[in-house]
Amino acid sequence: MNMDDVALARFLAQEAGRILMDLRAAGMHEGKALGAQGDVLANAFLMEALAQHRPDDGVLSEETADTPARLSKERVWIIDPLDGTREYGEGRADWAVHVGLSVGGKAALGAVALPGLDLVLDSAAPPALPPMAPVPRLLVSRSRPAREAVTVAQVLGGELVPMGSAGAKAMAVVRGEAEIYLHSGGQYEWDNCAPVAVAAGAGLHVSRIDGSPLVYNNADTWLPDLLICRPQWAQRVLEEVARIGN
C-alpha cells in the first residue's frame, strides 16, 4: 500500500481510533485500566505501521521509550496514540489520536482523529473556518485552567470553554467551536505536533505564547506553552500575555 505522508498520517490516526473505539465498546475494561490498555494497543499498531511504511524515518511516541536515534533524522513521526486517556476512560468524546510528521524541526503535516465524534482532520484538507463568535471563546483544561488564559479571557471579555485533551481543544479551534487555545501549563511534543500541523493547515496562528515558533524533535521533548488561535486575535493575545509576564 503506497500512500503519501498525509494520507498515511490520516490512515494511521483513523485506524488507531478504530482500535480504541472497539476496545471501549468491548466493555472488558473501564476507567484507568481502559486507558492503559488503549495506550498499549494503539501504540503497538502505530509503531508497527510506521516501521513498515516509513522504516527510514525517526519516531517519537509518548508510549515508547525514547532514544537519541531520532535526533539525527530530518523526518520524525511524532505520535500520541491516545491523547486524553482520562476522557477516553470516562466514556467522553473529547480525546484524540495524534499522528504528526516533523521535518527539520517543524510540524510539517499531520492528522488528528477524534474517534468519539467519528472525525479525522488532516493538514492537507482541513475544514473551512466558519465565522467567528462575537465574543472570543478560550479553551481551557477541565481541571487546571491556565492562569494566562483566565486573565486574557477577562481582559478580552471572553468566555472560557473547558474541554479534555490537547488535541480535542486544538481541533475545536479548527472546527470553529472556539477562537483561542492558550496553554501555559506545559506539554510534550507529542501533545501538539499533529494538532499544530492541522491548525496551521487550516490557516490558524500557531506559536509559543511569546510569539516564537514551535520547534520539534528536540532532545528535551518538553514544550512549555502553546497558542493556537484565529489570526485576527493573535497579536492582541500575544500582547496581553506579554503584559501578564511583566
Automatic annotation (TrEMBL):
Superkingdom classification of source: Bacteria
Gene3D superfamilies on file: 3.40.190.80, Fructose-1,6-Bisphosphatase, subunit A, domain 1
SUPFAM superfamilies in the cross-refs: Carbohydrate phosphatase
InterPro entries in UniProt: CysQ/Inositol_MonoPase, Inositol_monophosphatase-like
CDD domains hit by this protein: CysQ
Coiled coil: none
Designated name of the protein: 3'(2'),5'-bisphosphate nucleotidase CysQ
Organism: Novosphingobium pituita
